[in-house]
From TrEMBL:
Signal sequence region: 1-19
Family classification: Belongs to the cytochrome b5 family. MAPR subfamily.
Entries under InterPro entries matching the protein: Cyt_B5-like_heme/steroid-bd, Cyt_B5-like_heme/steroid_sf, MAPR/NEUFC/NENF-like
Record protein name field: Cytochrome b5 heme-binding domain-containing protein
Keywords per UniProt: Signal
Organism: Triparma laevis f. longispina
Amino acid sequence: MGILIKVSTLFTVITAILAGYAKHKMPTEVWNVHVQMVQDSITMPFKNGFSFLGGPLNPKPSYVVKTEQTKGVYDLCVNELKEYGGVNFPEKPILLSVGGKVFDVSEGSKFYGHGQPYNLFAGKACTRALSIGSLDPKDLNDDIEGVDSKAVEGQVKFYTEKYKLVGQLKTKEECE
C-alpha cells in the first residue's frame, strides 16, 4: 500500500511540473485530454485486479472528447444515420443502430473509425449482420427474419452495456 501512495504522489508531482511547462502552450481542453490519457495508462490493471493508483480493473478511457452533438437524442431515419459513419463527416459522432436503438460508438473509434475493421457497421442499421456474425454488406440492415432472437438480444445487450444509447431508429413510415 505504501508504494501505491508513493507512486501516486510521484505522478502528481510530475503532472504539476509538466502542467507548468505545457499547459500554457496548448488549449486547456487539449491539455486535459493529454493528462487523462497519462492517468488512464498508469491505472491499467495488473493481474491481481488493482492498478498503481487503486483504480478499477479495465477502466474505460475517459479521454474521448465528446462533442455537443452526443448530448442530445438522435432519432434518425436509416438514410440520416449514414452521416454518422465517421467518414464524410468526421466532426460528427460515430453512430450505429442495433435492434432499432442508436448507439454512439465514438469511444470505440479504433474499431469503428474511418479505415478501421468495423467501420462497415458505422452509420448503419446493422442488427442482422451483427447477430449472424456477417461482414457481408447485404446483411447490413435490421431485417431479423430467420435470425435467432437470442442472438439479437445478445447484440443489443452488448451495445447497451458498452456504449451510450443516444436515440432510436425511426420507422419507415416516420421517414416518408
